[in-house]
Amino acid sequence: MFSRLSRPVFLAVCAVPVVALFVIVAVLPLPYAVAVPGLTADVLGVDKGQQVITVGRAPVRKTTGQLRMTTIEATGPSATVYLGDVVKGWFRPKEAVLPRDAVYPAGQSVKEIDKTNTNDMVQSQDDAVTAALAYLHKDPKSVDVTLHLADVGGPSAGLLFTLGIIDKLAGDGSGGDLTGGRTIAGTGTIDGSGAVGAVGGVALKTQAAARAGATVFLVPKAECADAKVNLPAGMRLVPATTLRGAVTALKALGSGGRVPAC
Fold it and tell me: How far is CA 214 from the centre of its chain?
């Protein structure tokens, strides 16, 4: 036979497993990564003492303005993230809490992840060269393009690489710069046909862009809503789904024409 517990005692007894659960969650690592705005690099300029875009067997323009690729910096794939880190990340506008699998391929070791990121970057560079030369109707056998960017992996610089090659070789097609002399940042993958793909982390990348002095941000159209979150004051979002659309938008920006918006 069980004696009847008073209400305060009953509530206290019920609270014990709940408190225990919170204690366990607080000390156990969670499957999340905490990300912050990362570095940016001007693909028209120099990185670690070396030109990002080097062109051979073809005349190269002297450019003004900047085309800055953007990144995020996330806790490493083997880093331990606790509940306190997640809670702090939720309340800090310059941090984002992301599922670890959204940042790093699931089931891969650190070494395998590094290899994947490197391979993705190499493929992105190859696709950028292919897309840019196809857009300019240039024979790849007649133009030698080499891309160099240290300490960056993944495919998200593809669009900016492609635009940088076009600006170096042809500018806006009328004697001016594709940038119009502005500091323009952005992100987005590219494939050989010129299709622009989503990348993730755009809300942090716009902050990195603002820190570098950019006032225009090229974003894959599918990520417009994400890019508007905590958007820095004065930052203009320009959506893109194709390379041709991105080039057209930059030309319109320089000439005062109609520019698409998110």
Answer: 14
